[in-house]
Amino acid sequence: MFEEPISWWANHGASTPLSQALAFKLLVQLASSSCSSERNWSTYSSIQSIKRNRLTPKRSEDLVFVHCNLRLMSRKKEEGRIQRGADKVLGPM
């Protein structure tokens, strides 16, 4: 018979309360996802293509950073959560 880990710790972990508390904290966390890293690699592959293969790694990294932050700012602006003036470019990098 298989018992879920959180149920097992609830039923059998009372003799080690510190371990039980730690197990609960670890087991109730949301499962991690690879979506953000896959999205990052997708952006990177569109920037660093066969036609643009002469970009330095630093330049490619900077372009991915800018692209991701522009998407984030656009999403926040649509939700009305961006501060006034935060979307204006302050000058060249």
UniProtKB/TrEMBL annotation:
Pfam families: Dimer_Tnp_hAT. Residues 3-69 form the HAT C-terminal dimerisation domain. Coiled coil: none annotated. It comes from the Eukaryota. This is HAT C-terminal dimerisation domain-containing protein. GO terms for molecular function: protein dimerization activity. InterPro entries: HATC_C_dom, RNaseH-like_sf.
